[in-house]
Specification:
The structure is a single chain. By secondary structure, the protein is mainly β. The chain has 1 helix and 18 strands. A 4-stranded antiparallel sheet has the order 2-3-6-5, with no helix packed on it. Strands 8-9-12-11 form a 4-stranded antiparallel sheet, with no helix packed on it. The longest helix has 19 residues.
Length: 234
């Protein structure tokens, strides 16, 4: 879709008959066409009723939880009414489409060479998209991105990173699938947690997000869902 240059100065399009330069029919049509095309571009990424979407299509809506988007799991048509995005379920059925809700942006930057990092800084790797690194020893990164061969930690220049696999299915072993929720550093059910401890969520929708304990206690039996960013308590 071609994005038009939006008309900001609209004074010439509202000059009534009898003025020195009255608005012509052509002027008015050009203004309305520009307004429609601009609005069409803005709405293009919004969920629309009774609309066909293909698998992988991404939509957003002001009715979704903050920071979320929805990705079409299959091709189909949306319903007449917008679905309830606030449901706890990760997947939302809408007409003949199933949407998968996910965080739009993890807010975690990519690893950078020769950069100073401090404790608790988090980065994502380019060479292994299932891995995030949490800085446990401050320092300066190397000139090359570290290659993760351990499920615990990796040295990078003068930095020590804690390895975090965010995928629920992050690694394959010889016998079975190794689930991210069982990896140290990820959230666990019924775990005693002290103030300051950090736990990553195993849901891929929250890749790179983590919870920091503000009040000591024991976690519940089910991992928190629909977790917002920006310091929200859960």
């Amino acid at each position: 879709m071609q994005i038009p240059k939006f008309i900001k100065n609209i004074s010439k399009y509202f000059m009534y008959e009898g003025s020195a330069t009255p608005t012509t029919q052509d002027d008015l049509q050009a203004y309305m066409k520009n307004e429609h095309e601009t609005l069409e571009c803005l709405v293009d990424g919004l969920w629309q009723p009774e609309t066909e979407y293909q698998e992988g299509h991404v939509v957003r809506s002001p009715n979704m939880p903050a920071g979320f988007i929805a990705v079409a799991k299959n091709p189909g048509y949306t319903s007449t009414n917008e679905p309830d995005w606030g449901t706890v379920a990760r997947e939302v059925v809408d007409g003949s489409i199933t949407w998968t809700k996910k965080k739009q942006d993890s807010g975690v930057g990519a690893w950078e060479a020769s950069k100073e990092y401090k404790v608790h800084d988090t980065v994502r790797l380019v060479n292994n998209s299932a891995v995030f690194l949490l800085c446990t020893t401050a320092g300066t990164s190397s000139v090359s991105e570290p290659v993760v061969t351990s499920q615990s930690s990796v040295t990078d220049g003068s930095i020590t990173w804690k390895v975090i696999f965010y995928d629920k299915i992050a690694v394959l072993n010889s016998d079975n699938l190794f689930e991210g929720k069982n990896i140290p550093g990820c959230w666990k059910a019924n775990e005693a947690v002290a103030v300051g401890m950090i736990r990553f969520l195993s849901d891929p929708a929250y890749a790179g997000y983590y919870l920091k304990c503000m009040q000591a206690g024991t976690t519940g039996s089910v991992e928190p869902t629909n977790v917002d960013s920006g310091g929200t308590s859960v």
